[in-house]
Each structure stands twice: as structure tokens, then as C-alpha cells.
Amino acid sequence: MKRTLLRLAIIAGAVVIMSSSSCLDPNNGKEPEIPLVTIGTYVLNSGNFGSNDANFTAYNPYTKELNYNIFERSNAGKKLGDTAQDMIAFGSKIYIAVYNSGVIFVTDLEGKVIKEIRTKAKGSSANLSPRYFTTWENSVYVTFYEGYAGKIDTTSLTVSALTKVGDNPEQIKIAGEKLYVANSGGMNYPNYGKTLSVLNPVTMDVMNEVKVADNPVFLESDSKGHLYVVSMGNYNDVPSCLQVVNPNNDSVQKLDLGGLTPSFIARGPGNALYLVSSSYDANWKLIADYYIFDTSKKEIYGKLIKDGTLIENPYSLSADTLLTLIYIGTSDYVTNGQMYVIDAFGHMYHAFDTGGLNPITACPVTAGSQKDK
Amino acid sequence: MQNSFRAFFKGVTSFAVALFLLPAPLFAQNKERDTVVVRHLEESRITSTAKPSPTLQSAPVQVVDRTAIERLGVQELHEAVKNLAGVNIRDYGGIGGIKTVSIRSLGAQHTGVSYDGIAVSDIQSGQVDIGRFSLDNVEMITLSIGQSDEIFKSARMFASAGTLNITSSRPVFEECGTNVTARMKVGSFGTYNPSLLLEQRIGSRWALGANADWVTSKGDYPIIIHDGREPEHLLRKNSDVNTLRAEINLWGFIGASGKFSLKASGLSGERGLPGSVVLYNQDAFERLWDKNGFVQASYNTAFGEKWDLKGVLKYNYAWSKYYDESQRYPLGFVEDLYTQQEYYGSIATRFKPVKGVELTFAQDLSYNILDSTIPESPFPERSTLLTTLAGKYQGASVTVVASLTNTYITEKVQKGTPAPDRNNLSPALSISWKPFKATNLRIRASYKMGYRAPTFNDLYYLRVGNTNLRPERADQYNLGVTWSGALGKEEFGWLTATLDGYYNSVEDKIVARPTLFIWKMMNVGKVQIAGADLSLASGIHLGSDHTLAISTNASYQYAVDISDPESATWRHQIPYTPRISGAANLAWSNPWVNLSYIISFVGKKYALPLNVERNLIKGYAEQSISAYRDFNLRRVSFRLQGEIINFTNKMYDIIQYYPMPGRNFRLTLKIKI
User: Fold this and answer.
1) Please, which contacts does A29-37 make with residues 24 or more away whose CB atoms are closer than 8 Å?
2) For residue B22, pLDDT beyond 60
3) If you write DSSP's letter for every residue of B344-400 in order, what string do you get?
4) Closest B-chain CA to A189
5) Which residues on chain B are in Cβ contact (under 8 Å) with A334?
6) Is the pLDDT of residue B44 over 50?
7) Sheet holding A66-67: strands in order across?
């Protein structure tokens, strides 16, 4: 991985040099805006709950090379822990949320640990369980399943602010300079959560609470700064649905997907929102299909996969907008996950073994970002 | 998934009462218990003790009797059971850790557990935690694989693929008619276990027994956690136990041949559930409370030489409370209550038309209810009708046993749809043949088809349950050879040997299958098991006061998943099933201090269906030694016993990330008046 990343960094550097020399210092002496380039992708395997077998794999989307068990190899055998949930690359660092271990690992781009962040709520000795990340300006934001949203100071690598939100928050996203948190209430079945908390991302104060359909879990923003929300329903008689929130007035509109039941969403280039539709047949077999949603027309644009590739048992959906690659992780919960990489034309680019159980996200690592040196 | 972990800790085992095999000399005058090697293993001498001879059976049966229990110095039921061939014990560690028994890779739900001849049931999880039984008053443990040769029993005891029978001791009185036995056990990790047994003879035909015992333990044993880089020395947290058990027994003779017994039993306990070791996170707050009580009466009578009858009535109540504390829960904690009730009755009759032939018919009816505070609990009720017809021919050289058991189950729920009615017929046939007159060599062959009905958790547990489940089917074939006899001169010693090869197949295995956002119970798996069990036991007299007893067993289990040839787990060994395992023990009885040594060995196994390095649980050998001595002061007898368990301080897991205790000590003082 090291060598691969270095090589990619050189390519990226060359791209950077070429691009900055081609336009004659457009920044008037300020530090140049360096275009972002994907230098690799980490695939995070959540592992089996209780088995301490989370890990991640490096994938080179240019050469299709794979390197397994990056965390252990970069940290002298140290294990990542139990049930990894999310991973995000920000500047020169990687943030990994290990839910059941109650720890956020901050590593360098090679996966070497720089800091282990453990977070406790006031008056409690238990570590909070990190769930999902998002980034904005110079900060990384994280949800904790115990009902908190935190702001991570990317210089000191500490949780500098912790705000109480709703029950069992899942994804967190910036839209229109507001921070939205999906309060799933997933541990309170059958009384799922029905709100998004809206926070000021600078002060972390709660600004508003937006009512949405039962069990909001997945969030994504579009190019216009609108927020898309998937509420998962109750996995029984209340179906999942897609909603859009206008951050100007926090109004919520439920979108008509023509009977599809959405689950994972990921932002693509332009007006594209990738979407997984999943449902069960009478024998509890999962039936899944993959779509592109047009965020300008607010309707399904078409199928995501156009070459007939059949992908069963989706477990995650991620996108690399720079390379316009779509990553669909699949899992049977028993054997190693598979990652299907779909290109911009909807053709399968590559499929590979993720080297662990339950691939929960594909995290593109970029170079050229100015943030967080 | 957390919810279904909770589900596992439900329900409670219940005990059951004495029914069959009441020994004829019930209140016989005190016979000095033979602490040296028992000699009744020879074929002809087994009638009065009701102890089955392992070599005579047409299907594998293994016995650990009181003498062996004392000789080995084992103090817990699971310690005795793990010395048997073909058995895997799942042990979550420590005194409070749940311990279940799986026979020949079939899974614990196929193992019937009986206490004094009556099935102990848990309708919710389908498996019995044998850690609940005290070994103190156990007379004998019998493990039968497939169909046993004892056919005069309740229909339920025919319905399992294998049974673990626990038989409790009955009083033996000296002149005064009152026995008092007090015991104090002290163990490592803050473990104290006082117990008291009172026995009173009432007239010449009745006896009363009462016992109580209390177990308390901090259970904070040292563990070593590897995050892969550096071992960290910690104490197991939240592993404490506090349990009080009490039991009253009444035994008596009614009329010429009637035997009556009544048992009332109660248990109340609280324990911490330490959970699996989670790297970087030592928080553990789960707790479990149990209250269990039952009353049971049985009556057994003969009508002449040829016909006898027995009946049982039982009521069982089991309550449990699960508590967990975490801010992940909206209220900061969760508390679930479960109440199981069972009403059970059984009638069995036996007809002996000619010598050597027995025909039996047994009819059982049980009614179970489950009440819980889990959201959307359907409050299921189940009525089970079990009917068995069985026959046995026992000649000088051939034994043939055949049985047919029908299970009919019907359910009702207060919400939603109940599972459809189910009816299953399980046949079993076994033969033992002694081909040569001159030697005690026997050949045995058996077949049994068994079903395990889906449990209430399988069918109705919140979101996970699936009422479309079919019963899980297990077919068992066994072919074996047994031998027993004297070693040289009869006074010198004896040897028994059994070797069995077997083939099992499990179809429609009931498995929790994740489906993206929810888990569902499904009939998905198919498992093929081929294996062999070897056991050898021997006793050697070394001079008049010295005896060596040696017993050893070894098992091989090729238990693989054959659900789907396309799957990556095709022909992989199923989880928690070692290919090889074994145990050996050696006891030296002498006039000074009786000593014993036990080693049990379990080979590598896997925690998950995929046989890869990261799912590997390493093999281990655990060794223990025990010493005891009896003293007499006037009419009072004393026994002082000490054990060092796992004396090599081997750190190992039976269940992945549930570390077992390392070296620990136990000291017992027993006083009998």
C-alpha cells in the first residue's frame, strides 16, 4: 500500500504541477487551489458484531491492485476493533469510527494511528459509540449512537464540542451551511425517531428540529445544497421513503419514486443521486436494484447498471465523484464481502473480494486538498 | 442483533422429579460406598444399581456415577460432562456463564436434558443451561446418543437426538433415620458455596429430603486481551453470581408396588453477563435475574408381573429479567421480562408378555405459555402431544430396540398469526449383537430420525422470528463395537472399550440469517457429520488398598456445511466444532490421600462458518488435579477436598472472545452426621 500510495501521490503531484503551471497563477500570489485527485480507495469492512474483526483494504482504482489488512500492517498487528461503521478521508488524515469499540481512530493516509479519540458524555464513564462522519470547512463531524453529534477539531484531534441530538443518530450531513443529523431512534423499536436535528456547524447549537418520516437514517446533499433523507420505515408495514429538505426554510417534501423503496443513497456528479432500492420477497429474500435519481427534476432518471451486471445482497453504496466510480459493497454476512465498482457508463469496471466481512463503505482518498495540512 | 443476544439468556431450566429407576433398596441400611473401582461393569451385575452398562447398550451410552464423580473430584456438572465422548460444551466462562451441551455436532437444541427422568425444557430458547444444576446431590449422569435401551419412560425422552440424564441421590439411612450433610466450598475469585442437606426417614416406607445451597462469586478472574500488538492484563468485569437453590423431596411406597415421589424446587438468582470482550471497550452492564419454581409428582406401580404403569404431573414457572444499561437506549437502560409456564403430564405403560420382551406406550401432553414485555410480543401458547410406541427384545446375545414417536404441535397467539400445526413421526431402531459366546465383544448399530421444533424465539421473537419455519431434522446412524472384561486375573483389573463410527445429517437447520437491515430465522442449512468416538476405561488393583482408575476418550468430528456448493463455506467445518477432542483422567485411590488428574483437549475450531484465520479459535488442553481425604470422628464423617483447576494457567476461549478462567483453586469441607 505504501508504495502504491506513494506512486499515486507522484502521479497526483504531476497532475497538480501540470494544472498549476498551465494557468498562470490565477490566485494572485495566494496559495494555489490544488485540484483534488483520487490517489486510492480504502474499503472498510465492518466485521461481525462481537468478533473484533473490523479491517480495511486498500484498492487502487487505476491498477486494480488490492492490499488487505492495512490497519494491522501499518500498526504492528494492532487490531481495528469491533464493528467499524464509517471512514472518511480529510486532508492528510483518515478518520475511522469503530462503533462497538467506542473509538475513533485518526490515522495518516497509510493507516498509521496518530490518535485514538474516546468520547464520553458528561456524567458518564462509558465511551460513546461513533457512527458516521461528515466534513465541512476545517472540521470533521461525527454522530454517536448514544444521542450526540460531535465536532472534531482537526488540529488538536479532539472532540471540541458535543451536542445532544435525538435518539440513535445515524448519518450527518451539511446542507446550506447547516448541519443535519438523522435521529433514527433505532433502539426504540417500534417507536422510531421522526426528526432531523439541525445544528449550527460553527457553534454546534441546535437550531431546529425537522419532522420527517419514521426512522431517518441516510442523508445526502445535492449540488444546490438541498438535503436528501431516506427514512427506513419499520422494516415491516411502513415502507422506506426518500424526502428532500430545503435548508432555506427546512421544509420537507416527500418524493415519488414510483413504488421503489430506497435505502442507501450516495451523491454522484452533477444532479445525480445514486440510490439502492431494496425489498423482501415472501421468503425474506432481499430484492435489490440500483437507480440514478435526478435531483433537478426530482425523479428517477434510470437504472444505474446498464451492462446487465447482477448485484445481490447490497450492504453499502459509495461514490468517488472525482473518478465517477460507484462502489456497491455486498455481503452474505458469512463470507468476505464483494465490492462491485461501476463506472460512469453504468458498466462494471471491477469486482473484488474486500478481505473482510460486511464492507460498509468505500472511502476515496484524495490528494491536493488544501484543508488540514 | 443485540436483541437476539438477549433472547439467548431467557428462560430457565427447570428441574424435574424422580420417576423411573427408583432403586429397589430405597431405604436400605447403609452400605459402605465403594470408593475403589466399581466392579459392576461386568455384564451380569447391573440389575440392582440401575446403572446402564455402556458396553451392553445398542446405542452409545456413557455413565458417570457418584463414585466416578468423587474419584475425579469434579464439582460442577459441566466438568463431569466434558469427560464424555462425542460432547461439545459451549461455555461462556465463569460460574455464571451459560453452559450448553451439544452431542455429535447436532447443536444444543437437539440435546434433551432430564432431571430424575423427566425432561427439563425451555420453550423459549430450546436449550438448557446445565450450569444451573448443582452436582452435590447428583448420583449419576448418563449421556445417551440416539435411542437408549431404556424404553419405559415418558414420550418426551424419546423425542431428542440425545439425552443427558441427571439422577439425583436418594437417602441412605443408618439406624437413627436422620442424615445431616453440610458442605462449604470456597473457590478463587471470591466464590463461596455453602450447602445443607437434611434427610429424615418417616416410618419404614417414607422419607423426606430437603436441601438448600447458595452460590456467590465475584467472578472477576484475570484475563489477557490481545489487541494484536500488546497483551493487556485485565479482570473479567460484571461476572458476579448470586444464586440460592432449595429443594424438598418426598419419597414413599404406596401399597404393594406403588412408588410415589414429590419434588418442589425453587431457584432465585442474579448474575452479571460480562459479554464478549470488545477491544478498546470494557463496559459491561448486562444483568440477568432468574426465578424458577416447580412442583412435580410421580407415581409408579405394577399390576402383577407383566404390567406396570407410571404417571407424572408437573408445573413449572420460570421468570427472568434482563437488564442492560447504555445511553444507546432511549431511556438509558432496557429491561425485559419473560415468564414461561409449563403444564406437563405423562403416562407410560409397560407390558412384558414373555421374558426378554418389553412393549411400552407413552403419552405426554404439555402446554407452554410465554409472556414477555418485548414490544409486539404475541404471547404464544403451545400444546404438544407426544406419543411413543416402543418395543425391546433382550436375549443372551441380541438386543433389539425399536420405537416410533409422534409429535403434534399446535399453537395460538394473541397477536398476529401463529405457526401452523406440525406433525412429525420419528422412528428409531437399534441392535446390539454378541457374536461370540466366549468374549464380551458386542457389535451395535442404530438409526434414529429426530426433529427439533422451532422454539418460541425462532418463531416469534421481535422481528427475528419466522412462523414459516419447519422443524429441523436430524438423522443419526451409528455403528460400533464394545468390549468389556477382566485384565488377566479378575482380581487384578478390568477394561471396557467402545468404538463407534457415526454419520449424522441435519436438514432444514434453523439459523438466524441477516437480510440487510433485519435478521430473520430461516431453514437454510444442511450439515453433514461423520465422526468416531473411542472410549477406554480401566481399573487396576495395586495391592489391597491401592487402585488406579483410568478412563480416556477421543472424538473425531467432520461436521461440514453442505448447504450450497456455490458458497465459500461449502464443506467448511461448522462453527464451534473441533475436528478432534478428547479427555483422559487418572485416579489413584489409596489409604492416605486420594488423587486424580484430568486433562481435556479440544482442537482448533472456528467461530464463524468461514474457516479462515481470523475466525480461528485455537485449540487448548486444560488440566486439573484433585485430592481428598475422609476422616471420621465418632459418628461424624468429614471430607476435605482440594482442587487446582487449569493448573497450567492456560488462557483459552471456548466461545470466541469469552475468555475462560485461568488457574484457580477450590477447597471443600463436607461434614456428614
Assistant:
1) A31/A370, A33/A370, A34/A368, A34/A369, A34/A370, A35/A368, A36/A322, A36/A366, A36/A367, A36/A368, A36/A369, A37/A11, A37/A12, A37/A322, A37/A366, A37/A367, A37/A368
2) no
3) EEEEEEEE-SSTTEEEEEEEEEEEEEEEE-STT----EEEEEEEEEEEEEE-SSEEE
4) B375
5) 567-569, 608-610
6) no
7) A66-67, A55-59, A37-45, A359-367
CB neighbour class for B634 (10 Å; exposed up to 12, middle 13-18, buried from 19): exposed
Say if residues A122 and A93 touch (Cβ distance below 8 Å): no
Q: Which cell goes with B444?
A: 451395535
Q: Do A278 and B328 touch (CB under 8 A)?
A: no
Q: How many CA atoms lie less than 13 Å away from B180 in the CB half-sphere?
A: 6
| Burial state string for A339-372 with b = 16 or more CB within 10 A and e = fewer than 16 | bbbbeeebebbeebbbbbbbbbbbbbbbbbbeee
pLDDT tens column, B438-450: 888 999 999 999 9
Name the β-bridge partners of B411.
B382
For residue B88, what are the contacts with CB-CB under 8 A and spacing of at least 6? B101, B102, B105, B576, B577, B578, B581
Q: Of B52, B47, B57, B53, which is closest to residue B24 (Cα–Cα)?
A: B47
Q: What is the pLDDT of residue B129?
A: 92
The CA distance from A314 to the nearest CA of chain B, in Å, is 7
Which of B223, B238, B331, B516 has the most A C-beta neighbours within 10 Å, making it the best mutation to test the interface with A? Answer: B516
DSSP for B90-145, please give it. EE-SSTTS-EEEEETTS-GGGEEEEETTEEE--TTTS---GGGSBSTTEEEEEEEE
Cα nearest neighbour of A74 on chain B: B229
Whole-angstrom Cα distance, residue A172 to residue A182? 6
Mark yes or no for CB contact B513/A121 under 8 Å.
no
Residues with Cβ within 8 Å of B438's Cβ and at least 6 positions away in sequence, in order, are none
Give me the residues paired with residue A143 across strands: A149
CB proximity B615 to A under 8 Å: yes
| Structure-block grid coordinates of residue B15 | 428441574
pLDDT digit string, tens, across residues B553-603: 999 999 999 998 988 899 999 999 999 999 999 999 999 999 999 999 999
Query: Once rounded to an integer, what is the mean pLDDT over residues B160-165?
Result: 93
CB contact under 8 A, B515 and A315: no
Q: Which CA distances in Å does B581 have to A30, B142, B481, B656?
A: 72, 20, 20, 17
Helix (H, G, I), strand (E, B) or coil at A151: strand
Return d(Cα A232, Cα A264) in angstroms, integer: 10
Per-residue pLDDT tens digits for B233-246:
999 999 999 999 99
Contact, B494 vs B38, CB < 8 A? no
Q: Are B73 and B586 spatial neighbours (Cβ–Cβ below 8 Å)? A: no
Quick one: closest CA in A to B518, which residue? A235
User: A228, A216, A236: which is closest to A170 by C-alpha?
Assistant: A216
Record the cell numbers describing residue B658, joined without a space.
469469552
B410: its cell numbers: 399446535
> What does the H/E/C string look like for B295-343?
EEEEEEEEECCCEEEEEEEEEEEEEEEEEEECCCCCCCEEEEEEEEEEE
ipTM over 0.90: no
Interchain contact, B610 vs A232, CB within 8 Å: no
**What residues does B542 pair with on adjacent strands?**
B546
Residues 228-267 in A contacting B (C-alpha not used; CB under 8 Å): 232, 235-236, 263
